[in-house]
Amino acid sequence: MDLNTVRQVKSPIFPDEIADWPTGHAWLAGGTWLMSEPQLGVDTLVDLHGFGWPELTISDDGIEIAATCTIETLANVVGPPEWPAAPLLPDCAHALLMSFKVAGVATVGGNICMSLPAGAMVSLTVALEANYLLWPREGAPRTVAARDFVTGNHANILAPGELLRSVHIPASALEKRYAIRRASLTKLGRSAALLIGTSGPQGDLLLTITAATPRPVQLNFPRPPSADEMRAAIDAAIPADGFFDDVNGTPAYKRHLTYHFAEDIRAELAALGSGA
Ligand SMILES: Cc1cc2nc3c(=O)[nH]c(=O)nc-3n(C[C@H](O)[C@H](O)[C@H](O)COP(=O)(O)OP(=O)(O)OC[C@H]3O[C@@H](n4cnc5c(N)ncnc54)[C@H](O)[C@@H]3O)c2cc1C
């Protein structure tokens, strides 16, 4: 789409080339959302690609993902055998409603900053206990837990002009076992519910509920929960009117999926834990 309100595109090499942040500025990553609908309030795009950040850095500490890493690059990561949760990266990349053309340019950071309920890069990074490195316009960089970043549908904690620089997924989360469930009303539709469970050697369970709710909900069970305990924890965390209402499903449908998938995940991880 031709954004006819845009008067200039800046392509800085260093972040401090952007001295101020007047209303109308927007960071440009892959542009797959920015160019997909009118942006009447935007007159200046600031392209992130000139910064030249390495897309992925894999070390014993985990995975460092630049905000500008494409979703396609992430989908091609193959982790070492000691990271059983690494296949979650392609699983979540493929959970997005995207053609290969979009996946080749859409970025991990753009998806996170969109902060849509069906933003699978949010689902992935919350489930894998990631931290985000943010660069405010003023002051020192700050680190936030992925689970605290999204505050609602298309809403997050970024201040105007603040930049998501990178995402760090710790090795300790990649060493866990995982189970994932997703549903969409249509075969190639956006996610109506995307749930991920991860479990460590003690049988602890971290359940991440996304897409069904406006923002991620995470439940932490230090010991393997029973089916009743899990259902009670969901009820305590999400009121009946706390499910996301949109064309991808009614709140009642999404609540049903949440119970169903949570139980599936609990049972699958419990069976793996007992060696079944
Ligand atoms: C066909 C199609 C299907 C889609 N399906 C989905 C889907 O299933 N789920 C979903 O969540 N989205 C979907 N989208 C929306 C969007 O394309 C994706 O969220 C995509 O990942 C956005 O990434 P991008 O790099 O293209 O972001 P851009 O379009 O470049 O930017 C998106 C927003 O994030 C801001 N931004 C980008 N990077 C940063 C950064 N590092 N720091 C601060 N702000 C930043 C931009 O200013 C802008 O406001 C879809 C879009 C299309 C066209």
What keywords describe this structure?
276 residues; alpha+beta; Uridine Diphospho-n-acetylenolpyruvylglucosamine Reductase, domain 3; 5-stranded antiparallel beta sheet; 8 helices; 25% helix; globular; binds flavin-adenine dinucleotide
Please outline what is shown here.
The protein is α+β, with helices and mostly antiparallel strands.
What does this protein structure show overall?
This protein has 276 residues and is of the alpha+beta class. It folds into three domains: 8-50; 51-172, Uridine Diphospho-n-acetylenolpyruvylglucosamine Reductase, domain 3 (2-Layer Sandwich); 176-273, 2-Layer Sandwich (Enolase-like, domain 1), CATH 3.30.390.50. The protein is 25% helix and 24% strand. It is built from eight helices and 14 strands. It has helices at 71-75, 88-95, 100-103, 108-114, 120-127, 171-174, 227-237, 251-273; strands at residues 8-10, 25-28, 44-47, 56-59, 62-66, 131-135, 142-145, 150-152, 155-156, 163-170, 177-183, 193-199, 205-210, 217-221. The chain has a five-stranded antiparallel β-sheet with strand order 4-5-10-6-7. A four-stranded antiparallel β-sheet has the order 11-12-13-14, sandwiched between helices. A three-stranded parallel β-sheet has the order 1-3-2, with no helix packed on it. Helix 2 runs antiparallel to helix 5. The longest helix is centred in the C-terminal third of the chain and has 23 residues, at 251-273. It starts with 7 loop residues before the first strand and ends with a helix. The model has no long low-confidence stretch (mean pLDDT 95). The site of flavin-adenine dinucleotide (FAD) has 30 residues, from strand 2, helix 4 and strand 10.
